[in-house]
Amino acid sequence: MTHLSPHPVSAEVLPLGQRPRLLEMAGISKVFNGQVTALQGMNLTLDEGDFLSLLGPSGCGKSTALRLIAGLMRPTAGRILWNGPQSRGDIGVVFQEPTLMPWATVARNVWLPFRLRGQSFASVKGRIETALDLVGLSNFAGSYPRELSGGMKMRVSIARAFVTNPRLILMDEPFAALDEITRQKLNNDLLALKEKIGCTVIFVTHSVFESVFLSDRIVVMAARPGRVVEEVRVPAPYPRDMGFRTSPEYAAQTLVVSKALRRAMGEEA
Q1: Are 123 and 200 in contact, with CB atoms under 8 Å apart?
Q2: Which of 30, 126, 135, 260 has the fewest CB atoms within 10 Å, measured from its CB?
Q3: For residue 85, how far is the Cα from the chain centroid?
Q4: Distance of alpha carbon 229 from alpha carbon 252, whole angstroms
Q5: What pLDDT score was predicted for residue 33?
Q6: What is the DSSP letter of 230?
Q7: Helix (H) or strand (E) segment spanning residue 147
Q8: Domains defined along the chain, listed by start
Q9: SS (H, E, C) 21-73
């Protein structure tokens, strides 16, 4: 079976502040239809190996920021600066919905990024098998989306994002529609997968609890207009498990982030 090589910086797990810069959002603004300001003057740095969550209320521009980084739209003002050249496959995206092709098998869904590049299924079959193994779906390669649970469909979407071994994974509230038990399991699996592959993640969420469990950096955003107002670092080491979820450290950190979110929403001085 083909192995996806870990990215070297992420694999070393360098401390925050000592990792090479991956990208920077400098003075980013986005206005839709000349009227709705989704983002204004957004500044953000991202280092290789970060797990960064964008946390904030609906309408604060979290998803817009992700789409700008992904190159799915252009900013009205400001620049996104990458460290070094970009290549196809540098970014993997996981959306709120799994967005699977219902007529294609699980394996053929994971093949999609390669198919769009003109690479045959046979030539990347080993990488597809590896990705499915990493998300625990090796036995479902020939299944169709209609035969899968919601959590399994999201695993397929995650495998598709990771299969090209990208430098950066963008995840837009991927677990929001799932039940709490499934959500926690996928949180655990996501951290394990990141550790194996070694990549950088930007994760959009409304959940304080999810952001604290997953992230080493949490960027709190405010709406009207969307902007970064505060950053909170989570110093707890990886790997994290149920022991961390039930620890006083986790409880204290969620309180810190909850207060930051209330300040961003204007509910607390």
Answers
A1: no
A2: 126
A3: 21
A4: 21
A5: 87
A6: E
A7: none
A8: 18-87+204-269 (3.40.50.300)
A9: EEEEEEEEEEEECCCEEEEEEEEEEEECCCEEEEECCCCCCHHHHHHHHHCCC
